[in-house]
Amino acid sequence: LVDDMVDTAGTLTRAADLMMENGANSVRACCTHGILSGSAYERINNSQLSELIVTDTLRKEHKSDKVKV
User: Fold this and answer.
1) Of 10, 38, 44, 52, which has the most beta carbons under 10 Å away?
2) Nearest to 26 by CA among 46, 43, 47, 8
């Protein structure tokens, strides 16, 4: 999955879960701006998303092993 921005990660994690439910072997995502506010990390950690790659446009400490810069 490719997105310009991930804020609360609701849409992204729902899409990843739907892809897995419909036969995908794994789902990875990348985005330019990883805002990751509110419950974003909880959603990412609880989703079937394997990995989220973000650029370093926003410098922050990430709270998930699934998030890579």
Assistant:
1) 52
2) 47
The pLDDT tens digits for 39-49 are 999 999 999 99
Determine the 3-state secondary structure of 7 from DSSP. coil
- CATH code for residues 2-68: 3.40.50.2020
Are the beta carbons of 65 and 30 closer than 8 angstroms? no
CB 27 within 8 A of CB 9: no
Of 21, 64, 25, 22, which is closest to residue 41 (Cα–Cα)?
64
Please tell me the pTM assigned to this model: 0.91
